[in-house]
Amino acid sequence: MAPPRLIARHLAHPRGVFGRFVGGLMNRHNSRINRFALELLDVKSSDRVAEIGFGGGATLAPLLDCAAHVTAVDRSQDVVAWATARYRNAIDAGRADFRIGEIEALPLESDQFDKVCSVNTVYFWRSLSIGASEIRRVLKADGVLALGFLPGDVMERLGFPKDIFTFRAVDDVRHALREAGFGTVEIHRPKPGTTWNVIVAQ
Questions:
Q1: Cα–Cα dist 175/198, whole Å
Q2: Quick check: 115 and 144 in contact, CB under 8 A?
Q3: Radius of gyration of the chain (CA)
């Protein structure tokens, strides 16, 4: 079932108190895909990890539990402010960093990260090719991306509003990643009938 328009707008760009409420809903609804993406990413204690579009922040704590450092980027100033306050101890310890930014111009240095995680964000990218290239830019040469999303055909059947979400075909996302320079691009689902997928690219 597609979300109501008010919730859909906050999924795209969470703001204020209601944005935090929607973030909580996102965390519960996306718990399975988030958990699966992190399992596939297989973060090690020495890894520097970037999360792009962290929204409700469900993956921040598990990432901080196992990574050497986590840099999280979101285009919502309110979301970044919340995470900065919530994880102040990790920031002060030099293990976390939260930044406002867009996928098309990530506020990150090149070749800095071992792993990148991004779940349910491709619907809001203005350009698949630019987004894929930016992720490839910030990853180290042997870096790994876990990119989770609901395919466009499923979103269309569920009635997601097209003026808020851009529907993305799996093949289009895979092609953009390969064009950006990823050598291995694999599609994973926990079960054959799972509607969402996680692409792992190296």
A1: 15
A2: yes
A3: 16
Nearest of 135, 78, 76, 148 to residue 104 by alpha carbon: 135
Q: Any idea how long the chain is?
A: 202
Q: pLDDT tens-digit profile of 121-175? A: 999 999 999 999 999 999 999 999 999 999 999 989 888 888 888 999 999 999 9
Share of residues in the chain with pLDDT > 70 (%): 85
Digit-coded pLDDT (tens) for 23-38: 455 655 568 999 999 9
Amino acid making up residue 168: R
Cβ–Cβ < 8 Å for 168, 149: yes
Q: 177 to each of 143, 144, 189, how far by Cα in Å?
A: 13, 12, 18
Rounded to 5°, the CA angle 150-127-197 comes to 20
Structure tokens at 119: 């779940």
pTM metric for this prediction: 0.87
Q: Are 189 and 33 in contact (CB under 8 A)?
A: no
Q: Is 124 exposed, middle or buried (0-12, 13-18, 19+ CB in 10 A)?
A: middle
Report CA-CA distances (Å) from 162 to 131, 154, 194.
20, 13, 22
Strand bridging mode 197-201 / 139-149: antiparallel
